[in-house]
Amino acid sequence: MLPAEARTAEYERKVREARAHIYQGQEARRRRTMEEREAALAEARKQADAMVKVARAALEEDMLAAKAALQQQADGLANQIIESVLKPAAAAGGR
Prior knowledge:
By secondary structure, this protein is an all-alpha fold. It contains one helix and no strands. 96% of the residues lie in helices and 0% in strands. The mean pLDDT is 93.
């Protein structure tokens, strides 16, 4: 090999090595970015699940309170109906 060809071959080898090194660095950064993104997504999912759990518990509590209020209103209406039916019957029977 001529000295100029040897220097050219050496230069090309070093350029290939430098490119490979750059690509490895880029790949490592890409991999690290993907891992950070996946960790952030996992944390967001965890927080969303916790929020959904809290919301479901609050909804269940509200539903139970509404059922209790409806039951209380139904009992009150039933008592009013009974009174309106029985009072006239008692008044008619009392004459």
